Amino acid sequence: xxxxxxxxxxxxxxxxxxxxxxxxxxxxxxxxxxxxxxxxxxxxxxxxxxxxxxxxxxxxxxxxxxxxxxxxxxxxxxxxxxxxxxxxxxxxxxxxxxxxxxxxxxxxxxxxxxxxxxxxxxxxxxxxxxxxxxxxxxxxxxxxxxxxxxxxxxxxxxxxxxxxxxxxxxxxxxxxxxxxxxxxxxxxxxxxxxxxxxxxxxxxxxxxxxxxxxxxxxxxxxxxxxxxxxxxxxxxxxxxxxxxxxxxxxxxxxxxxxxxxxxxxxxxxxxxxxxxxxxxxxxxxxxxxxxxxxxxxxxxxxxxxxxxxxxxxxxxxxxxxxxxxxxxxxxxxxxxxxxxxxxxxxxxxxxxxxxxxxxxxxxxxxxxxxxxxxxxxxxxxxxxxxxxxxxxxxxxxxxxxxxxxxxxxxxxxxxxxxxxxxxxxxxxxxxxxxxxxxxxxxxxxxxxxxxxxxxxxxxxxxxxxxxxxxxxxxxxxxxxxxxxxxxxxxxxxxxxxxxxxxxxxxxxxxxxxxxxxxx
Amino acid sequence: xxxxxxxxxxxxxxxxxxxxxxxxxxxxxxxxxxxxxxxxxxxxxxxxxxxxxxxxxxxxxxxxxxxxxxxxxxxxxxxxxxxxxxxxxxxxxxxxxxxxxxxxxxxxxxxxxxxxxxxxxxxxxxxxxxxxxxxxxxxxxxxxxxxxxxxxxxxxxxxxxxxxxxxxxxxxxxxxxxxxxxxxxxxxxxxxxxxxxxxxxxxxxxxxxxxxxxxxxxxxxxxxxxxxxxxxxxxxxxxxxxxxxxxxxxxxxxxxxxxxxxxxxxxxxxxxxxxxxxxxxxxxxxxxxxxxxxxxxxxxxxxxxxxxxxxxxxxxxxxxxxxxxxxxxxxxxxxxxxxxxxxxxxxxxxxxxxxxxxxxxxxxxxxxxxxxxxxxxxxxxxxxxxxxxxxxxxxxxxxxxxxxxxxxxxxxxxxxxxxxxxxxxxxxxxxxxxxxxxxxxxxxxxxxxxxxxxxxxxxxxxxxxxxxxxxxxxxxxxxxxxxxxxx
Lengths: 519, 487
Description:
The structure holds two protein chains of two kinds. Chain A is mainly alpha-helical. Chain A has a domain at 276-519. In chain A, 72% of the residues lie in helices and 3% in strands. Chain A has 24 helices and two strands. By secondary structure, chain B is an all-alpha fold. Chain B has one domain (2-480). Chain B is 75% helix and 1% strand. Chain B has helices spanning 2-5, 8-26, 34-54, 71-94, 102-121, 125-143, 151-181, 186-198, 204-220, 229-236, 239-245, 248-264, 269-292, 297-316, 321-349, 364-367, 369-383, 389-403, 407-432, 449-467, 470-480, and strands spanning 60-62, 67-69. Chain B has a two-stranded antiparallel sheet with strand order 1-2. In chain B, a hairpin with a 4-residue loop joins strand 1 and strand 2. Chain B is globular, with a radius of gyration of 21 Å.
């Protein structure tokens, strides 16, 4: 049956597409159209997952587990749980969006671009579904290469420097990460996530506590760079500035955050707890630092880059407070950031296509000329700020309320970040869309959104609203994944402070399930 | 007759070389000599088939126990035949004038292969020495093959002087080992040493002999600190020859080192493991740091080959069957990607390799998208990105080392591979950057059929070694099983 291999299909349809792209003619639109179809097909295939996902069931679903290489014992093991389910969907959802937003932005070397773009899709989806550490590491590393090459090829100004910076920032910690993986393999004789998890939990591997700390640190640093977490964010603003929009959308956030969840919390719960105070401090610094720097930017892309840093730090805060609501919120916020951040980057790139500048001081009074663009920009900004009814509110609220009980002071400081985010976003909106029409706007009449751009943006906007209004639908799946973590389960067992939120699943409501689909 | 079957691939290559030389002599002076290359290609194909055929022979020795065919020798025979085949194809593409003295070159490649193959099957150190000389002397001549160029003879002379110096170290080492044990047969040495260890009386000459053998072989595999010849020789020698000599003789020398270390002197591992540990660390570090500073791709690849020799040496320190298998596997994956990249360097370099600066590669993607894409793929494999042979090789090597508790060596090695990414990436970035006025696109001739074939074979091998390494891995593990000394 095809559905027995649904995860393989979702992961490798983009690769197959990339191979075809390599043989398509460069002239005409064939490559673009084909890529769009491939990403759409991947997205439609991935809809199978939420449709058949059982959130009452613990553990992994849609599993595929076959031997790949006999010795060393490497298995082709895929599966999703509540944690990765929506991240896979986010990745496949952003696929067609990425293809559409590149439609006219990428004019030359289209074959190289779309080939690598599709390869990147495979790598990202693979990271979320791989359950064998070797396989996982393969996708993790693979996700660096197309990204780095695309930044180098299409970076407008300092693409090569940004690409090399990005690659070295991420590659060297990954080398240490590989040491840690190999060390685990040497002790356990397996790369399988579930087996490693139970062996580590039982303490049957005979690894000294100190060695365990180093192992968890090697994992954490590799992921922290990719998120990025303050102070490892040095590459972020350069990459966001230089990367093509379709790549900038996916470069930060979800891969690293997912991996922290899956591996640091899953394999090293005690070590994660031990390092939590440090991570909370770094998260709060990241929230405030990112927001303050964002306030000082006049370049829209740099502003977005620092707002991404600030928002992602919320997720870190949610994770390392180890409260159920906070963890749910962290996953939800990861999705939000992927969605809202991408939408913002798309919007800004549309402005750039029209006016060839990211400098917001050159803009002004655009709302009257481009009403649709302005509308969508405002919706996205409000979602990012955390306006109730939109998705950002749920994520931030869950994170802050979940972690308040244990770390009131730090959370109070983090809440300032919410206010700051409202300031810089609204200030940007005001500068671009309101006020007097600037000479740039006057001299360069530009059309409002065309059909393709509407098609690109509205699904994201609708999803922001849907995720804000129908959050239980998402949270239910997420929570089924979060509850598996030893750290959380332990808390539950001790009956200590864990805050149940209004957003945790009410009794199943069929109307929500059908009404709040992912479309 | 049975004895002859045990050296069948060597016989095939010898005959192939002789046929090419005779045909060369019979052809009129002005005649096109490219067909001789195809003749040599068929010789290599036959040798490859013969090597595969040898796999069905029961393991055993021939000629009074000086040659041994086993899974280990077959593994390296196949590898060497494959390397020579690909190098011949690259040479066919690179020769510009059809009337150059090509006959000698094609013959020498085959004769050199005889030496390399014998190195991997000889179990008598004197025969190893003779084989080493056959392989080395052919390589010295091939390096100087472009007589009219300035760099090529210079490279050959350097290689010859330093190489013969190193070979004499090797020979002296053999002599000392003979003095200490009374034999030059691998198995007899092992027996004598274990007797000596049991009697707690080891002749100190043995240690000196071991050290000298390591020095001699260290030179051949271009491990630091015996590496100084490598960049100059690789830069000056014609690229198709570099494709061969950076992989074939190296693989053979590693085979000898495995035989000596694990076959003859496993009992002395307390002594040679620390030496190889340090050689590995120095090779990886000096190789990668040296490569960072290069502007010439051939020199960069020379330093990278020093670093890769270091990675292979890491596997030696594992003292486990996995370690031997990892070293053998790495030799294969390094051969695939390195021969592949030199195929492209040879083609784009033009006559006498005058276009080999990194800047010369700017915008190759515009001139030849195919060559640029494949070159990028090989570079990515050299970095060690997953789903390529380079990654799996590195993974397996370091996994074996870590299994044996070599934590620091693994950390140093993998950090090194992170540094290495930088200089490979620089070339990838150059390939795809837009050509500027100062550095126009290099004019690339259409790749000829033999070159395309060579690139195709090496690229497919690199990919298969990355995603479905099962068969090669199995063969390497079977090869490792021939050493009963490690468990």
